[in-house]
Amino acid sequence: MFKQVTIRKGQIGLVSKNGDYQQILEAGRHRLNGWFGQLQVDVVDLNGSPVLAPLDDYLRQYHPDWVKQYCLVADLPEDAIGLRYDHNLLQEILPPASRCLYWRKDEHQRVEQVKTDDIDVPEALLSALLQPTLRQRQIIGHTGVLLAQIPAWHLGILKVDGAAQQLLPPGVSGYWRFNHSVEVEIVDTRLQALEVSGQEILTRDKVNLRLNLVANWRFSDVLTAFGQLAKPADYLYRELQFALREAVGTRSLDELLENKKIVDELVSAQMREKMAGYGIEVASLGVKDIVLPGDMKTILSQVVEAEKSAQANVIRRREETSATRSLLNTAKVMESNPVALRLKELETLERVAERIDKISVFGGLDQVLNGLVNLKGA
Questions:
Q1: Per-residue pLDDT tens for 141-184?
Q2: Calpha distance 48→26 (Å, rounded)
Q3: How far apart are CA 353 and CA 346, in angstroms?
Q4: pLDDT of res. 292
Q5: C-alpha dihedral over 61, 62, 64, 66, to 10 degrees?
Q6: Three-state secondary structure along the chain?
Q7: How far is Cα of residue 136 from the mean position of the Cα atoms in its chain?
Q8: Residue 59: which residues within 8 A CB-CB, separation 6 or more?
Q9: What is the CATH number of domain 192-292?
Q10: Could you tell me which of 175, 121, 185, 124 has the C-alpha nearest to residue 154?
Q11: Cα 375 from Cα 360, distance rounded (Å)
């Protein structure tokens, strides 16, 4: 009993009998001799697709000559990565210790091996990884590569197996993830603002204040900062809290109100000392707001009002005393000097004449102060 089978170009037929592969049919028309149902033909496209299990193990074990002729073999050691190319275009990244077969469509397929000792992805390969992304065509196994894109004014911290290795400048770099744990942390190197708000602190005289502080800071040594601190910004925030509480809690309200810059100066000095060994620079800081309790505001208003009233009274008394002393000195001068007395009389007469229209004097000028003066106003 005969069976007719047609195999097109770019295909092969795997002939099996009772589940056991007997031969391979290439492109053309074939006439098989065998009982119906005993022979089976599996048509395979030679398009570079992988040979699926368990067929791959079967062919390796029982038909190595077929594997050599029709398959691309990708057997990798534990310390190597496989790069499968098709017409010089990267198609797949294979992890170490892979054992794969692919149906070979022509002679333009190949597998290259890259050792995992060096985690840096070569620059030429990096462009091949980026271009498919731009064309919206991902490379199979691309998750085995970490692509680090560092923006301008930033640095990247490369960590391999949990240890910081180096700083990465702005740009794109790639690293193999196989056999290693690789990650990149991006750090902003520009001046940043950190706000410590809503801090309620008791002064030395038990007055509850609420303060808001702002600090401008930057990294002076990124590797030092992240080598000693898990979260540098959080550490800076806590130290600002501690310094602010120490500066306010050890001083009275009057001291703080008399010199509002004292808090800024004390916190700045303490932060410079604290952050010197951690690769962090505090460029400037300042207390934005000092909020008093409602009842304390009323008391302070009354105190200020009383102080200003007392100051005004002192000034008034001082001026009165000065005026009295001046009059006394003038009287002493006029008592001993008739010419000065006459000048004072003329000055008085001049001031009086400024406000009236007509003056009648009886007894001469000598009687201006002692005699009768008849003044008729308008």
A1: 988 999 999 999 999 999 998 888 899 999 999 999 998 899 99
A2: 16
A3: 10
A4: 78
A5: -130
A6: CEEEEEECCCEEEEEEECCEEEEEECCEEEEEECCCCCEEEEEEECCCCECCCCHHHHHHHHCHHHHHHHEEEEECCCCEEEEEEECCEEEEEECCCCEEEEECCCCCEEEEEEECCCCECCHHHHHHHHHHHHCCCCCECHHHEEEEEECCCEEEEEEECCEEEEEECCEEEEEECCCCCEEEEEEECCCEEEEEEEEEEECCCCCEEEEEEEEEEEECCHHHHHHHCCCHHHHHHHHHHHHHHHHHHCCCHHHHHHCCHHHHHHHHHHHHHHHHHHCEEEEEEEEEEEECCHHHHHHHHHHHHHHHHHHHHHHHHHHHHHHHHHHHHHHHHHHHCHHHHHHHHHHHHHHHHCCCCEEEECCCHHHCCCCCEEEECC
A7: 31
A8: 51, 66, 67, 71, 101
A9: 3.30.479.30
A10: 185
A11: 6
Backbone angles phi, psi at 189, to 5 degrees: -95, 0
CA–CA separation, 64 and 85 (whole Å): 23
Tokens coding 235: 């550490």
| pLDDT tens string 176-217 | 999 889 999 999 999 999 999 988 888 888 888 888 999 999
For residue 25 the two structure tokens come to: 């049919």
Taking the domains of the chain in order of start, what are their residue ranges? 1-41, 46-114, 118-189, 192-292, 297-370
Look at residues 179, 195, 210 and name the one whose alpha carbon lies nearest to residue 81: 179
Q: Is the preceding omega at residue 54 within 30 degrees of 0, hence cis?
A: yes
Phi-psi region of 88 (alpha: psi -120 to 50; beta: other; left: phi over 0): left
Q: Hey, what amino acid is at 1?
A: M
Q: Which amino acid, residue 167?
A: L
The answer to whether residues 231 and 206 touch, using CB atoms and an 8 Å cutoff, is no
Residue appearing with tokens 């049919």: 25
